[in-house]
Amino acid sequence: MAHTAAVHSGHEHEHDHHDHHDHESIKTFGFWLFLITDCILFGTLFATYVVLHGNTNGGPTPHELFKMPGIIAETFILLTSSFTSGLAVLAMHRGNKKGLIGWLAVTALLGASFIALEVTEFVTMVLHEGATISTSAFLSSFYALVGTHGLHVSLGLIWMVGLMLQLRKRGITAVTKRKVEVISLYWHFLDVVWIFVFTVVYLMGVM
């Protein structure tokens, strides 16, 4: 009787574990669907920018507005943050909770530095160059594209801070593991989008 109960309990535990694993897989799949819709969103914004970037309405042109040293610094910071988010995932797979939280914190700091530089760039353009979102079709499409990317990075930062608090409280579990993998994937995605922004908007703008 006791043996039957133990076997039944073992099967129940195995079933719960399998259900939990399936639940996490469904959430990961849901995130991939979100990334696909985000690709469509950014694709639309890029297409709009490419069509409208020459319509300056007599206002400042990309060549006059873009200060490449600051943009290169932003790019370097964001690419470095992608590397540190990768190190966070490696620390997680080694079961190193302290290293995982530490690398996530470094990634968040780099992300915050990127946002600070971007906000400074926008403020300078508006206050010193009079380049507002309503100045021209070029600037409307520019702020829509670059601003949407910046908003995604900001949301990623809030998400990352919340995840660090969760990791500190609960440690590395199946749930937090999935969340770390998802935030890392999201962060790499934003880096890829930025490389396109850097090339299509900034490099082509100053050439």
From TrEMBL:
Write out the entry's keywords from A to Z: Membrane, Oxidoreductase, Transmembrane, Transmembrane helix
According to the entry, every stretch annotated as the Heme-copper oxidase subunit III family profile domain falls at 29-206
What's the chief localization of this chain? Answer: membrane
What Pfam families has UniProt attached to this entry? COX3
Name its cellular compartments: Cell membrane
Superkingdom classification of source: Bacteria
Keyword DNA damage part of the UniProt annotation = no
Q: Which residues cross the membrane?
A: 29-51, 71-92, 99-117, 137-165, 185-205
**In its keyword annotation, does this UniProt entry include Transport?**
no
State the membrane topology.
Multi-pass membrane protein
Name the family.
Answer: Belongs to the cytochrome c oxidase subunit 3 family.
Q: What is this protein called?
A: Cytochrome bo(3) ubiquinol oxidase subunit 3
